[in-house]
Design goal:
Strand order of the largest sheet: 1-3-2-4-5-6-7-10-11
Number of helices: 10
CATH superfamily of the largest domain: L-asparaginase, N-terminal domain
CATH class of the largest domain: Alpha Beta
Order of helices and strands: EHEHEHEHEHEEEEEEEHEHEHEHH
Distance between the termini: 31 Å
CATH topology of the largest domain: Rossmann fold
Shape: globular
Strand content: 15-25%
Bound molecules: aspartic acid
Helix content: 25-40%
Length: about 375
């Protein structure tokens, strides 16, 4: 779907905002002015944040307010999402844009290309200070990591979402959106890579994963924890991302994606899946191994055969936290495998696709990419 763009200036309201360690201009006060009216000097002083909507539960509605699981995702437009959060007017000038209206379970590679290119185009402009993306929770961590590796700007990019549809009692979307814009408007968020603001916490795109099917604290960064927090207009970072990202990667977003798929190792698994993928001509396979990336003997043999046919194999874990040790649960050097470290299988697939698209070949060079990013 083509991106629709509209300019919506939300002028500063006549309220003082709690002092912020980061939110530029959040303390500005001015008389409220209509969204379409002339911009006040204070409104001009506020950071200009593009809000790109892609759908998800945050834009979902159900027939009744008590229903938080049976609803249609991605049906509420970006203007209505913003109208539900009047307090945004004291935080930023918002430029809304509807990029897509999907349930993020249906995220597609072509839409990733569209989204990443749009984010890069917006951030290249002097008229935009940061970007917020509303997204479904299901594949949010994958999109966030993709952008973390392909956005070419130090300006903030913050993804947010909701676990409850917009029609629900105690919907979590409006506060998550306000907090995401607050983080994107914050000077402290510059250079931190792509961020996820959810349930008052700020996570790095590299670390964050969805860990609950229903709870409003669905996003966690296992092992390392959140980067910081956002509350009542205040933004605080408590640690920094150490691995290179955004402007410090060689990855650029393109229209062509190498075919990389994921297989899982489990009790009684056969090699049928791996053999079918190789026959289909995939360039890479990420295996979600048990424990520390251990692989059932039948699948491990199939993967070794795949390597001998030129397929790249990345060994990750299905466990959900911790890292996979190279030459630990499998002899990676002998088998020609790459190990994913702490990346889960879905993020490992993102990195492998980007590394292959950037011309990476062979397990030694590709392992360097996994060790670096
Ligand atoms: N299925 C929804 C989506 O990912 C779930 C959500 O947003 O919470 O779009």
């Amino acid at each position: 779907m083509a991106a629709r763009s509209a300019s919506l200036t939300i002028a500063a309201m006549n309220t003082s905002t709690p002092s912020s360690s980061g939110a530029q201009g959040a303390g500005s006060a001015a008389a409220a002015s209509p969204a379409s009216g002339p911009q006040s000097a204070a409104a001009h002083a506020l950071p200009r944040i593009a809000v790109l909507a892609t759908g998800g539960t945050i834009a979902g509605t159900a027939a009744d307010a008590a229903n938080t699981s049976g609803y249609q995702a991605g049906v509420v437009g970006v203007e209505r999402l913003l109208e539900a959060v009047p307090a945004l007017s004291s935080v930023a000038q918002i430029q809304p844009e509807q990029i897509a209206s999907i349930d993020s379970k249906d995220m597609a590679l072509a839409l990733w290309t569209t989204l990443a290119q749009r984010v890069n185009a917006l951030l290249a402009s002097d008229d935009i200070d940061g970007v917020v993306i509303t997204h479904g929770t299901d594949t949010l961590e994958e999109t966030a990591y993709l952008l973390h590796l392909t956005v070419k700007s130090i300006k903030p990019v913050v993804l947010t979402a909701a676990m409850r549809p917009s029609s629900a009692l105690s919907a979590d979307g409006p506060l998550n959106l306000l907090n995401a814009v607050t983080v994107a408007a914050s000077q402290a968020a510059h250079g931190q890579g792509v961020l996820v603001a959810f349930n008052n916490r700020i996570h790095s795109a590299r670390d964050v994963v969805k860990t609950s099917t229903y709870a409003v604290d669905a996003f966690q960064s296992p092992e390392v924890g959140a980067l910081g927090w956002v509350q009542d207009g205040r933004v605080e970072f408590q640690r920094k991302v150490v691995r290179p990202h955004t402007v410090d990667t060689e990855f650029v977003i393109g229209a062509k994606w190498p075919n990389v798929e994921i297989v899982v190792s489990y009790a009684g698994v056969s090699r049928i899946g791996v053999d079918a993928l190789v026959a289909a001509g995939v360039r890479g396979i990420v295996v979600a191994g048990t424990g520390n990336g251990s692989i059932h003997a039948s699948v491990q043999q199939a993967l070794a055969d795949a390597v001998s046919q030129g397929v790249v194999v990345v060994r990750s874990s299905r466990v959900g936290s911790g890292h996979v040790m190279r030459n630990g649960a499998a002899s990676d050097d002998a088998l020609g495998f790459v190990t994913a470290g702490a990346l889960n299988p879905y993020k490992a697939r993102v990195l492998l696709m980007l590394a292959l698209a950037a011309g990476g070949t062979g397990p030694v060079a590709l392992q360097k990419a996994f060790d670096k990013y």
